[in-house]
Batch of 2 targets.
Target 1
Amino acid sequence: MREIDVNEIIPIVKKLCIDANYYIGEDVLDKIKEFYEKEESATAKEVLSILLENYELAANEKMPSCQDTGVAVVFIELGQDVHLFGGDFYEAINEGVRQGYKDGYLRKSIVNDPIIDRVNTKDNTPALIYTDIVPGEKIKIIVAPKGGGSENMSEVKMMKAADGIEGVVDFVVDRVSRSGGNPCPPIVVGIGLGGNFEQSALLAKKALLRPLNESHPEEKWARIEEEILEKVNKLGIGPQGFGGRTTALGVSIMYKPCHIASMPVAVNIQCHAARHKSAVI
Amino acid sequence: MPQTIRLTTPFTDEDVSKLSIGDKVLITGTIYTGRDAAHKRLVELVEAGKDLPFDIKGQIIYYVGPAPAPPGKPIGSAGPTTSYRMDPYAPALMDVGLKGMIGKGPRNQKVIDSMKKNKAVYLAAIGGAAVVVAKSIKEAKVIAYDDLGTEAIRELKVEDFPCIVANDIYGNDIYKDGVEKYKVET
Ligand code: SF4
């Protein structure tokens, strides 16, 4: 068994929040460059080159690439042989978020109550924390700040088995079509299939953590990702909704077994600011 | 073919008549920020026949809620916010001289009609390109509605602020025409 003081977590979470907002992943930059080469619209090319310039500037200037620095979504893989001591683990994560958003000059975008009060909590907490218990004695922490513009274009639908894969593909493409320029395209489409109502949405979010240069490990699902990407990019929405061939940079599917009567489908739309950083303790 | 045009504020009829959807515009001069709450107050002043906190003739309003300014910088990351929330207020402001709006995402038909009538344009800043925009902002100061916090009206001095013409004075809309052009029927 390994002993870990929860206070060790605080600076790590703080750094992940800042780094995720300042430094976009190479996989996103590579995909934008790849689509830039294929893009036919001059305006779309202009937008893509501004995005590349922006990510370079953000890293050099140490500023968040987008002013919407999102809600801090935190995924924890906790080794079952770890014993945590020194305080409340989740409070330590929130303290890391608090310090990261303050010292990193990130925008605070959380309100205390979704409908009635809507008062800003002023420190971007609480974070949204999801924990999986895994074998071993390590802790993996992933911080994925998520902006509101793209999250608002997401949807869960309880479909029927009879809708088949065609039904799923049509639903996803239609969801992207209805989103238009709102989620700051080019987007990444995260899809969660199966599980239950609530698990499908979490799967869709987790699917967004996969690097953009990797496709699904199973050939049959990789082909469906390809098919959806092709259809989405035929919609013509293009970068920022100005028209063009680059509506999405990638499609990522995760699935789980489900009930004989169900076929939950969740689509989580991610803007080009596909930010996530991880650390292992 | 889209062109790149440099303009200084305030805009004149001649300036905006040169712009077509898809053109890149680099703005230099003074622009003003405003979001939902500030718009509501401005329109109330217009309706009451009172003076606005700044001379709106030929001016440009940028829809933005910036990140905090890091030490030594005039402003933090400052990309555009979604524009449709300002649609109910925009025509009244164009009627009293507003010449340009900067934001992201499509506008409704009333706003598009008002742009045509008043010879005003809607320019799209690039959503998520918040540092590119911040770099073009040289000074920022609150000039009205300090009580609104991030939503206060700020006067920004900008140099080569980059944006793309989304609606021109001829009634064209990049969000419709652009997408139609690249849509492939399946
Ligand atoms: S959708 Fe993404 S890129 Fe657009 S404003 Fe929100 S966080 Fe920024």
Target 2
Amino acid sequence: MPMNMKRALGAISATALAALWSVPAAAAWTLNLREGVTELSREIYGLHMLILWVCVVIAVAVFSVMIYSIATFRKSKGAVPATFEHNTRAEIIWTVIPVVILVAMAVPAARTLVKIEDTRGADMTIKATGYQWKWQYNYIDEDVSYFSTLAQASNEARQVNAGIDVHSVDNYLLEVDNPLVVPVNKKVRMLVTAADVIHNWWVPDFGMKKDAIPGYINELWFRADKVGTYRGQCAELCGRDHGFMPVVVRVVEQAEYDSWLASQKAARQAAAAPAAQTAAVTTTNALETTTVLVANAE
Amino acid sequence: MSASQTHGHAAAHDHHDEHGPAKGILRWLTTTNHKDIGTLYLVFSLIMFFVGGTMALVIRAELFMPGMQLVDPQFFNTMTTVHALIMVFGAVMPATVGLANWMIPLQIGAPDMALPRMNNFSFWLLVAAFSLLILSLFMPGGGPAAGWTLYPPLVLQTGDAFPLAIFAIHLAGASSIMGAINIIVTIMNLRAPGMTLLKMPMFTWTWLITAYLLIAVMPVFAGAVTMLLTDHFFHTTFFAAAGGGDPVLYQHIFWFFGHPEVYIMILPAFGIVSEIIPTFSRKKLFGYDAMVYATASIGFLSFIVWAHHMFTVGMPLAGQMFFMLSTMLIAVPTGVKVFNWTATMWKGSLTFEPPMLFALAFLFLFTIGGFSGLMMAIAPVDFQYHDTYFIVAHFHYVLVPGAVFAIMAAVYYWLPKWTGHLYDIKLANWHFWLSAIFVNLLFFPQHFLGLAGMPRRIPDYSTQFADWNMVSSIGAFGFGLSQLLFPYIVVKCVRGGARASDHVWEGAYNHGLEWTVPSPAPYHTFEVAPVVK
Ligand SMILES: [Cu+2]
């Protein structure tokens, strides 16, 4: 039996190695959280590293004692069991020390939490509404609104047995037709809600994730300080295509944002003229949706 | 020796035989014997472990590579949902109930469970529950696919599977409540003279606290799913904002049940490990009283931390603060347990039979799950971890090398007592090492995936997540296949093997009354209560 098992194990590990070898060189083997591009995301990253190191230090200490015990107090080495059953001083110490560490952790965590919840003084507000399975973005005060859906190339490649090599698709599953566009270095307040089931709006580089709940308007804010495209995904199971409603945000210079906004408004007006009838209906619907939404108690 | 004495002995023997097991299948259908019912629970849970495990392999096979190769996304969601429901309510919980049935009467010197007929009923209800749940997979519209948490409004989109799944949960819940009542009544009333509460073995203690948790939260869950049912069929709007209801209310109710539920699965595991480590360290459990109080504190705290599962729903700042701090507090009694187990080994005389190996793996790997739990308690950072593979890694670390390894350890610990045979230690060692290696290959990379930004419950992923997913899937298949050794070892042991002595393990003699009865444990034990000094 062991001989057979060794052979089987060998076969399994050979297959495993071969499979790993075939992973494209582009694969990242990412290990850790990203620092991100906002003050909040960097603070969160700092907290994450702090708690991680606290855990690593405690783990090294505790695991060393365990490993030492396992290695030393062996019957095969003639160890004779001691008879002690408790030690009040040790027990007090290993109750008090964790309490102290936890309090030390709680203070910076609470400070960051307060900052996260402070959405005052925003430069602009955008409403994100989750649908099965896309996002709608409303630039409040700007009369700009559009849907953001999984990009065509990804959508074709992700069908069962599509026969398309997903590695050939740029940003597979993390690309949309119309990304959210925001200016750099501006405090953007997002109002997050949903029209059907619960979704979740998440961009890892902003450090922010908030449930989009029908009937609720949740808030989050970010101030991206680096121009670029940042990708995230819906992070609450929302049905069949939950895996296929990415969030893509383009952070651009103020000037580029202004011209983008102007072109959006122009396009909207051009579309509105011949189809005034349809537009009127859409607006009414949008208004009705808004009145149904109950503002989240703040 | 006089004739009358011989006669008397024979009569007593005949009398005894009348109470032996019925023959054939009827024995198992009608049994009220705690050992038979314990066996039924354990066999049932093992079957469910393989059913749920197969579903996990479907998930890991689809996630082996980016791109959709095998299943429809809706079916993928069904697999994640039903895998979880089966593993939680069909595998882990019944396994610990089975161990409780077998071991609590033996540990406290009781002749049987206090309510034997209800005991039979609660087992067969469970079979009915899971027949319904599995039947729901074949309903028009597919099986339940809204996640095991059954969040509305999504869960209300379920097809004909919906009422079946809800009814299955009702039945499983009723079964759990009856099981819990039985355990509490047994422990409170049938302890042998002299067995005071603070002399009870730790496994019995942890189950007593678990049973109270069950009674407290299962009705809450039943209420929540009943409200889902009326929202679906009778036009109530408990959880529908359009009708003045609140979808977040469901989450609060669910997690008021769901968090204690986590401890319902892990406290008996704590008890098991607290039995095994002293035995194979040949030393008394370090800080017995502290262990009891730590278990009770964990039980209490489990009721006031539920919303840490919901940091992203948009709770007020004060709420987030409260749940962050209360959750961090759990690290204190949990730490006490880990330190006490370590101190039990300190200056002991250790040997490494299979139960001890599994218990040691529990000690290391559950602790890793505890660390990631502490990390997620930090609310601001949880905004990054929430609903990613980081949480998947976390709860699988506490449930697989945590609860499941402890259950395996318990079976390897008490199996010789049940069957009277020693099992194939060499094969059990193989089972251990393969499990321990593959479980880490399976779940450790999921920490990296979560931190890199991969959400949970997605059937396909961006190519940047390809590498660790492949490693994780290889681990999954290795782990799944290694588990086939387990039933083989158990069946082989039931059929025969070297005779086990009454105390089985060298270090077991002073750890509980179960080692004072013969191996195999006779069908009826402690008909006359033993006296505990
Ligand atoms: Cu979604």
